[in-house]
Amino acid sequence: MRISPLQAEILAIIRGFGSPVNTTEVRHLLNEQRIRPLVAEQVYHALVTLQRHRQVRRVPRPGTRNVYWEPHPDAAPGSVNLLRKTGGTIAPDSLSAG
After folding, report:
1. CATH number, domain containing residue 59
2. Which domain of life is it from (predicted)?
3. E strand or H helix at 32
4. What is the pLDDT of residues 24-47, one digit of tens each?
5. Which pLDDT belongs to residue 95?
6. Which of 20, 78, 88, 92 could form a Cys-Cys staple with 68, CB 3.0–4.6 A?
7. Is the pLDDT of residue 84 over 80?
């Protein structure tokens, strides 16, 4: 599977969080260093694509409308091929567990 730089950033956040994280929290973390902030739809679309490829999964949270995400248990940490972002900070080893 080839993923975009945005998807790589999202995977790094979700894998590094340690507990399920909701879409809004992911977006806030992504936007901390951005000049032009991402909107909710961009982040959600990337998450759904990652879900389709079994890299993340939704986690049910009764009593909330927020969608929570965690790494998919079948996804190997090094199973993705990254499209490097020129001048960016995402590297394949940043997605390794541990």
Report:
1. 1.10.10.10
2. Bacteria
3. none
4. 999 999 999 999 999 999 999 999
5. 41
6. 20
7. no
Note the pLDDT tens digit of each residue in 70-83.
Answer: 999 998 766 555 44
Sign, CA torsion 25/49/72/67: positive
Those residues whose C-beta lies under 8 Å from the C-beta of residue 74, and which sit 6 or more positions away, are 54
d(CA 48, CA 55): 10
Give the residue carrying structure tokens 């972002």. Answer: 85
The phi and psi torsions of 58 (rounded to 5 degrees) equal: -75, 145
Provide the residue range defining the domain that includes 9.
5-71
Contact status, residue 34 vs residue 9, Cβ threshold 8 Å: no
Please report which confidence band the pLDDT of residue 97 belongs to, taking 50, 70 and 90 as the band edges. Answer: very low
